[in-house]
Amino acid sequence: MVAAAELSPLRAQFEQPESSVDYADAKLVVDSLIDPSTDTAAVRRELDTWTKAVQGNIPVEATARDRLDALLKTLYQPGPWNQGWPFTYDLTDPLGKNPTNKRLATYLTTRKGNCVSMPILLVILGQRLDLPLTLATAPSHVLAKFADDAQQAWVNVEATAGGFKFDSSYEHETGITPTAIENGIYLRPLTPRESVGVIASTLMEHYAAQRDSDALMAVADLALDANPKDPVAMVWKANAYYLQVQDRYVRRYPKASDIPLAQQADYSRLSGENLAWFTKAEQLGWVVKTPEQEANYLQSIQREKARRGQ
Asked: What confidence score (pLDDT) does residue 197 get?
């Protein structure tokens, strides 16, 4: 079990003023909590190298959009700036089942990413280039948002492809409900501290896999303090209560009636909180992904593999 003191570096990230949040710092804190052997100095050197590579592609008197285009070119188009080896979506792990693939060090080494690592690297480099880039979410997906002065609007940057996408495309493809849009839980440009909550989602996933309900609860609470409408954190918090029910009662007592009278109130409280947090997420527009949606997504991955000849 993780001691509360071990989460102090993450807590410090959430306590930063909005203007002081550093996405690279936040991501490296999260990755180091998951894997203490993470070589943060090496990752920072890589980030420095990529920042310089992007700067080499920025034209004189560039606008913010010019700088964004240079960033996308550097990462996604083969050329001397990336040794002819661009960053691409990892078609071998389309659902992000391997948590190692969500770490920044892995992505920088393999140059194969997912909808967690790819937008996070994009906003990290964007921040270093003074670009108005931030994170946003859709169901089971993370994207970037760019504040386009010319259009006077936020533009979606789909980091898994290095291009742009309309809100309507995400709504259709990921099953975003009208209620979710009305409540602002998806496709909204997040503040820096809210973005730290998104970055911390892999840590919640990690603690859930370890069945460390207390640590999972602590991280979910940090994310919810930053963004009370974070549906991912809500669902992880519900899962933390579920794990507590399982560990404290279900595994010990075959039937609920076997639970000692003195502990029944706690059992009822934890069970109630589990349901309450799922209900709260559902009321805001969160829905469980259907098997059909997942099957359609996997079919699109197979089509993309065929297109690439993989």
From this structure: 99
**Nearest-10 Cα torsion for 5, 9, 13, 16:** 80
Instruction: Quote the CA–CA distance of 131 and 85 in Å, as a whole number.
Output: 24
Alpha-carbon torsion, ordered 146, 149, 153, 155, to 10 deg: -30
- Kindly list the distances between the CA atom of residue 37 and the CA atoms of 32, 40, 201, in Å, as whole numbers in the listed order: 7, 9, 20
Q: Residues 6 or more apart from 62 whose CB is under 8 A from it? A: 70
pLDDT digits (tens, 9 = 90+) for 146-190: 999 988 999 999 999 999 999 999 998 889 999 999 999 999 999
Among the listed residues 232, 230, 233, the one whose alpha carbon sits nearest the alpha carbon of residue 218: 233
Of 132, 131, 130, 86, which Cα lies nearest the Cα of 110?
86
Q: Supply 82's token pair.
A: 């990336």
- Token pair in block for residue 246: 């399982």
> If you ran DSSP here, which 8-state letter would residue 24 be given?
H
Residue 109 identity: T
Cβ neighbours of residue 207 closer than 8 Å, sequence gap 6 or more: 2, 213, 215, 216, 219
pTM over 0.90: yes
